[in-house]
Amino acid sequence: MTSHAEAFLKAATLTEALPWMRRFQGSIFVVKLGGNAMVDDELLQAFADDMVFLATVGVHPVVVHGGGPQISQALAERGIDSEFRGGYRVTTTEAIPIVRDVLREGISADLARRINTHAEVAIVRSGEDEGLFRAAKRAMVVDGVDVDLGHVGDVVSVDPSSIQRLIAEGKIPIISSISPSDDGASILNVNADAAAAALAIALRADKLVLLTDVGGLYAQWPSTDSIISSISLEELAVLLPTLESGMIPKMTACYDAVAQGVAKAAIIDGRLAHSILLEAFTTEGIGTEVTSS
Prior knowledge:
The chain is α/β, with parallel strands linked by helices.
């Protein structure tokens, strides 16, 4: 039974959130789901609930996701080794259909099912649908040597019209970043952080949010007392070359999004249930926010 103190705390929390709800009503949030939130059942359900909450208060969430651990597991079950070069998965011709199936038929479908227990609003899409993404094969140099990553690419064009239509219909798009090559000859595995940034730019989103497995960007990693709550593009440009390799794609995605018109971008700790609501609807926020100035 809820005590009076707990009830008052809940009421106070809702009251604090009210001005932020009003401010963001009608806004588009592109949210990249990744890290521990994808493999922990309780966190994944909390994320699904949060997407429904955002939609209920008038925000338009658009979800983009990766699936590294699930892909590695599926490949291992088929006797295919996972190889990484320069932080990217080498994706062979044998592996690409498995990657596509895990992302769309596994992760996207599961998240849509969780959201649709509240209301039938989640729609599964990928970069292959209605020309959403086109990608070019990624060239990689590691230690001065050219490396062939196989079916790995970078987004080179976005047609957001299908997603804009779903938003107008009150739907929540669930998007995997698997994409056709720009010449239509192959399917490419695209980094989900970069895909989310490209989509946020094309949609002219109000916010890009990346869920990760750290509390935010740290000024003196691994000191967790040095978290940076807010950083400008100018400051981030200076810091980017010094970051750990795993953080570079995420902060580059945030930089690119804000530099090309997205109002704000943030990385937040996906290990905390409902962290996106804390980021969006509290005065303090959470994680690290990138702003234009």
